[in-house]
Amino acid sequence: MSRYRGLLLIGLVCAGLWGAGRFLQEAVSRRDTSARDGARLLDQVMQRVRLSYVDEVEEDRLWQLAMRGLIGELGDPNSAYLPPERRARLERAVTNSYPGVGLQVDLLDGWVTVVMARLGSPAERAGLLAGDRLTAIDGRSTKGWTIAEAGNALRGPAGTSVRVQVERGSAASMSVTLERAEIRVSTVARAMVLEGGLGYLALTAFSDSTDRELVRTVDSLRTAGARALILDLRGNPGGLLLQGVRVADLFLDPAQRIVQITGRSAGVNATYVDSTAQRWPDLPMTVLVNPLTASAAEIVAGALQDHDRALVLGLPTYGKGSAQGIYELEDGAALSLTNARWVTPIGRSIEYAPVDEERLAEADSARPRFRTDAGRTILGGGGIVPDVTMGDTAALGAERRFLAALGTQGGAWRTVVREVAAQLVREGAAWDSLVRGAPAWRERVIAAGRRARLTIAPDLIDEASALIDRTIALEVVRTAFGAPYVARWAVRNDPLVQRATSVLRRARTIGDVFAAE
Question: What pTM was computed for the model?
């Protein structure tokens, strides 16, 4: 009987396997049928639009629209179809480089004017100076151009040439031919040692060289006498995830977790931990953030906050807690697709789901609580919530609305500000007045703007008064003392930097900074 039971068991197993195989085959068949039906339906819609839509649309254009529609319907702002030119821009952003001549320009009296020639660039080697007026580019007059038009004309493939006509003061106009090259831009925007031995460093992005640039800069600040550090990540949109990991690694101890990444595909799942000893273990530190701090910048701020390595000040960050894979397509295009999300070392999700204005207060009170390594309570629920909240989100919004309202009047606005600043300097504007930022200066600029026929709504001017005052003061400093003093004045008179300075002045150890909470 046992022999028959064995045969029966084998038969049942075989039948089960056959049944499972049959089920899988049918499931795959249904999926294939569904895919074929979907493709057939899409093709029918495409052909009907191509043949019957009231306006003629090229078939290539229809496929582009279909791809964008598919990705757009995912409801994910970070996933996108990247045509070849947009993919190229993304790759340049990752390396923080662009092909051009190395000029930073602005508009002055309606003309394209040099603000700065980057050190070592084709423009710097050719002797172009701040204040030079570029009256023509490749034979075309620049009178009335926008900054974007000037940038497009100056940029081009490395190795190609561009001819600029230059006016410098009362000297005769000269023609200069520049050979374009690949221009690398440092992600360290500003670095200086403030009073009391406090180092200040602002990072604008996380490119493929950010960790090396940061090491060189902090080492240099230490050599110059910095005993503490303010790391400014405000406005930093992020960039390369691995660069965020490497920057955090510089400030943490071995085996401390930096970020955990999870997705549907096992290939993207990873937990990043610190692999090296701290480079500056005795450096008290604060980190500055705002709603424009995102992505890799949030990884750094979150890791340093979770491990009690730095006090975070400012406003809650953007909340981009997702990673995108770049998948190559035909003809040089690519698909940027969200394939993972990340959390901070203690498990806080960085991804933030926006809520309407009426629910903001409720959302803040409902945020989950977490404990740092040292037992401090910090908030989760999306983004990085600072230890010390300081700033005005309404003011940030008002400033953005004001700048948007300027639109094409931006060049004329800057000309008006420069003219009033020059008048103030001739009148002997005092340094003390600069620090305070006199409202009377604003009235003079607004009056001059009206004479120049600028159209800006009065309520926007009132809302953005702080921005206008700051812009005028910076231009007075530039006119009176030169460009090198502008960055230092801006940093020294930044309210959040001043708060960070008051924290670090009293700090002798890393732990001392948390006494300010």
Answer: 0.79
